[in-house]
Amino acid sequence: MRIVIKIGTSTLAYPNGRLNIRHTEELVKTFSDLQNAGHELMIVSSGAIGMGAGKMQIDRPQDMPTKQAAASVGQCELMYTYDRLFTAYNHTVGQILVTREDFNDARRLMNLENTLYRLLQLRVIPIINENDSVATEEIAVGDNDTMGALVAKYMRADLLVLLSDIDGLYTADPHTHPEAELIPEVREITPALEALAGGAGSRLGTGGMATKLMAARLATGAGVDMVIANGADPMALYSIVAGHGPGTRFIGRRK
After folding, report:
1. What is the pairing mode between strands 124-130 and 2-7?
2. What is the C-alpha to C-alpha distance for residues 241 and 32, in angstroms, rounded to an integer?
């Protein structure tokens, strides 16, 4: 299977933005094992701005120049960590930084696809993130849920997995409605379903349930199954890849 896995900031980092080293090591171990099993992995990783802010010991930046500066610092630490951890399991990673223009311009999109396909052929695991150090509102993808869906669509993936700090889509907000139930499978994204989505996600992240439903619409429209799952348990990925894991699975529309 060709699998795109998006990792949210809240899955990688502590609330202060610092890397959760033990948990990241567990994630990489699971990713490496899935790669060993013959799957093709592409990782869309959040965390650069949060990690940069944590390393510089500043609050989550609100203005664009400080966000870009934090991303510049954090991306170095993020890739250094991935390279070191994946190397321990004999896997090579490659960094891909993109903006909205890379998906909107046909020539740039072709170049991006060619690079990603070649990396997969070479058994290299691409680590993809928005180029936050230069991206502005005009050229930003906006969030890595959408980024993951775009990569899954254009790379003709079999599965997109969004890992964050939520278990999936519920019938109501579980924080305010304890009786809310997890929706295990979605075959059609209806207006009623979209009404269940709230606003932004965690303090460090940018994506809430609304962005995840937008990603689901994009991915499933391209025939890609998508799963929203809690990244707290990396081992759950084995069940998700097997087709019966936890979370909410959105069924891709087959043509």
Report:
1. unpaired
2. 14
Q: Is 96 helix (H, G, I), strand (E, B) or coil?
A: strand
> At a CB cut-off of 8 Å and minimum separation 6, what does 166 contact?
201, 209, 228, 230
- HSE at residue 146, side-chain half, CA atoms within 13 A, is 15
Q: In what order do the strands lie in the sheet with 124-130?
A: 92-98, 124-130, 40-45, 2-7, 159-164, 225-230, 248-250, 185-186
Read off the pLDDT of residues 135-160 as tens digits, 9 standing for 90 and up: 655 445 668 899 999 999 999 999 99
CA dist list (Å): 196 to 91, 124, 210, 227: 40, 38, 8, 17
Q: Residue 190 contacts by C-beta under 8 Å, 6 or more apart in sequence? A: none
pTM (2 decimals)? 0.89
Whether residue 205 is predicted with pLDDT greater than 50 in this model: the reply is no
